[in-house]
Design brief:
Distance between the termini: 52 Å
Structural class: mainly beta
Shape: elongated
Largest sheet: 6 strands, mixed
Radius of gyration: 28 Å
Helix content: under 10%
């Protein structure tokens, strides 16, 4: 039994990993046979997901070639041919198994893909098998990075309110000067005290001791209610890997209890969110990460001009 692993670069389709196991024997295995098995029964993949298939052959005369070809939406690609020697094997094995592990590339978004496998033996006999799968359409997320959210100063000047659709932070004064901004705001940064710590608050949760959003001075007519969920154990690596709308739907489902006001946040936390259904364009799901929480004057709170957060946001388009 021999086992070798190689990496093949496909012209369009990226990287394919093959692990080959073969055995030699004097037994009569009969005519050339080929079997292809794929464990994913529904045959639907997402960009970035790994496709696994197992190709098994038996050859009476010994294998000379293992070929495979990709067909994408009816367009046949170039056949790739591998000899046993290319795979690091002795010539003409009489049986073997090839494990294909292929990461779905973004270029296959929304496509129907067929992989054809072909084996040829010393008698020039050929056997072919294939399987077909579909790739869900890849819809990229909107990304906003390095958003500075200032600690609340209670004088309407701090840029403490965040609109996930623009990736910007606004002050209550900004919003007072342009009433169209009210409907964009999804949450604000607040500090309730040492017990609750850093908090995100939906405008719907009108807190008189913070900004009296419905009061005479501000008089917000539109106060969105945003669903916020802390994603336990999510890391910056997990956040950085979010690339498609499907990724956002998945991480939202993985989030914990949902709140319109969420407290006890800290640097490094990843949150999933869903914006108000009444917003223009309907509700959107997304995720954010608190990259930095800066207590600029090191007084233990986040209520001063020197205090701020830096957050990144990813949201459905």
């Amino acid at each position: 039994m021999k086992r070798n692993a190689i990496f093949l670069v496909l012209a369009v389709f990226g990287l394919l990993t093959l692990t080959f196991c073969s055995s030699d024997s004097d037994d009569d295995f009969g005519t050339l046979t080929l079997e292809v098995m794929n464990s994913d029964l529904d045959g639907v993949y997402e960009v970035g997901e790994t496709l696994n298939a197992t190709v098994t052959f038996i050859s009476e005369e010994g294998l000379t070639q293992l070929n495979y070809t990709f067909e994408v939406d009816g367009v046949l690609g170039v056949k790739t041919t591998q000899t046993p020697e290319d795979l690091g094997l002795d010539p003409n094995p009489i049986s073997g198994t090839v494990n294909f592990n292929y990461v779905i590339e973004q270029s296959l978004s929304g496509a129907e893909v067929t992989i054809y496998f072909e084996v040829i033996d010393l008698k020039d006999q050929k056997e072919e098998r294939h399987f077909t799968f579909n790739v869900d359409e890849f819809i990229a997320v909107a990304e906003f990075t390095d958003i500075t959210v200032e600690g609340p100063l209670f004088d309407n000047s701090s840029k403490s309110f965040v609109a996930t659709s623009t990736g910007m932070a606004y002050s209550a004064s900004d919003i007072g000067d342009d009433s169209n901004l009210e409907g964009l705001i999804d949450f604000g940064f607040h500090y309730f005290g040492p017990l609750d710590g850093i908090s995100f608050v939906s405008p719907s949760d009108d807190i008189d001791s913070w900004y009296d959003l419905s009061g005479t001075d501000l008089n917000w007519m539109t106060r969105n209610r945003t669903t916020l969920r802390l994603v336990d154990n999510a890391t910056s690596t997990d956040f950085d890997a979010l690339a498609s709308e499907i990724d956002l739907l998945i991480i939202f489902d993985e989030g914990g209890d949902q709140y319109s006001t969420i407290v006890e946040l800290q640097e490094g936390d990843v949150l999933a969110f869903e914006t108000d259904a009444d917003k223009t364009g309907g509700s959107k799901k997304g995720a954010l990460i608190i990259r930095s929480a800066v207590d600029g004057n090191t007084d233990g709170d986040y209520l001063d001009a020197e205090d701020y957060l830096v957050i990144d946001i990813k949201v459905q388009n």
